[in-house]
Write a structure and sequence with these properties.
With 345 residues, this protein is mainly alpha-helical. It is built from twelve helices and no strands. The longest helix has 34 residues, at 281-314. 77% of the residues lie in helices and 0% in strands. α3 (67-91) crosses α5, α5 (116-148) packs across α10 (245-274) and α10 (245-274) packs antiparallel against α11 (281-314).
Length: 345
């Protein structure tokens, strides 16, 4: 039987007989030639299948995990795990810039295994490491929020008092020097001293907290006390229960920005620590620290201004007399509207 007769059924399926004979040519099993294109196509299809599995798992994770948690925590954690595994685990300090080695290790990790089960196992390991990293950074961000707000734990109370006293002495000294410069007619020097004083705390309040953010929150509480007579700490929960949805949403957005800034500081710390094993991560972490510090100040300003505005605008709902007057006014307006509707009806 001729080779063309053997190849006829397979040609109708779009295959050649050579695709079924990896070692030889079509019809000549004994010849030594290169592997045909169909075999290479099967290998490429296998790689593409693994890539599709990875993309499908990522898409399913994105559907099941909230967008804010996915993009702000899990995705940066995955990137950090990959950089730590390649930079700190493979390159190290001596071969920190070996791009060829990094590419080889990445390609080897992607091509390791012989089936979809190995690919799924690798993705599960990366996902677990990323989830653990995201949880650790979240806890570190909570600690950063506590420290930046000035609510230091009891075992740091002596350091907190000494730092707050030092900031208060420095603030009073800059204020005295600025007043003396204005009396001497040196307005430029006085403005410079006031700017330096504003880096310690805002407005004209003596610092009482060891951090700038804590002094900013304390200044907002003092301003609310002066304008409304309410103490923010004991009345905060009651106010949240009576706030309308727009005010509640504004507070939630401001607090979310503050939490995001604290998480950025936490990521900068982790990148700086990674510099112990792969030094390029250290300058990246320091740059992130500077950017996150400015971001934190803007977020603290926004949160303080929003909380102050909410208390001033809606603090009357906490006063029984004001609430009673408001109910009487609303009732009078309602009766007037109903009376006018009956007249026009």
């Amino acid at each position: 039987m001729a080779a063309s007769d053997l190849a006829a059924p397979y040609s109708r399926l779009g295959l050649s007989l050579g695709a079924l004979c990896p070692v030889g040519t079509a019809g000549e099993p004994g010849s030594r030639t290169a592997a045909p294109a169909a075999v290479r196509a099967v290998g490429c299809t296998h790689v593409h299948c693994r890539q599709l599995i990875a993309l499908g798992l990522l898409a399913e994770l994105q559907k099941r995990i909230p967008d804010r948690w996915f993009f702000r925590r899990l995705l940066p954690a995955t990137l950090f795990v990959l950089v730590a595994a390649i930079g700190g685990g493979q390159l190290g300090q001596h071969r920190w810039s070996d791009v060829r080695l990094a590419r080889e290790r990445i390609a080897g990790a992607l091509q390791s295994g012989s089936g979809a089960s190995e690919t799924v196992a690798l993705l599960v390991l990366v996902a677990l490491a990323a989830a653990g990293c995201a949880l650790a950074v979240h806890l570190l961000a909570a600690a950063v929020a506590i420290l930046t707000s000035g609510a230091w734990p009891w075992w740091l109370a002596p350091l907190s008092r000494r730092t707050a006293d030092w900031r208060a002495r420095r603030w009073n000294g800059l204020r005295a020097r600025a007043l003396a410069a204005r009396r001497d007619g040196d307005g430029n020097r006085a403005d410079c001293l006031d700017t330096r004083r504003g880096r310690i705390t805002v407005f004209d309040y003596v610092p009482t907290s060891p951090t700038w953010s804590g002094n900013r929150f304390a200044a907002a509480e003092a301003r609310v006390k002066e304008q409304t007579g309410f103490d923010v700490a004991p009345e905060w929960t009651r106010l949240l229960l009576v706030l309308p949805d727009p005010a509640r949403a504004a507070l939630a957005d401001a607090r979310d920005a503050y939490d995001a800034a604290c998480e950025a500081i936490a990521w900068s710390i982790t990148c700086t620590v990674l510099g112990v094993w792969w030094w390029p991560a250290a300058p990246v972490g320091l740059a992130m620290w500077l950017a996150a510090g400015r971001w934190l100040r803007r977020a603290v300003d926004t949160l303080s201004e929003t909380a102050e505005a909410v208390f001033i605008m809606h603090g009357a709902a906490l006063d029984p007399e004001s609430a009673q007057d408001s109910e009487v006014t609303d009732s009078s307006l309602g009766q007037c509207c109903r009376r006018r509707a009956r007249d026009h009806g």
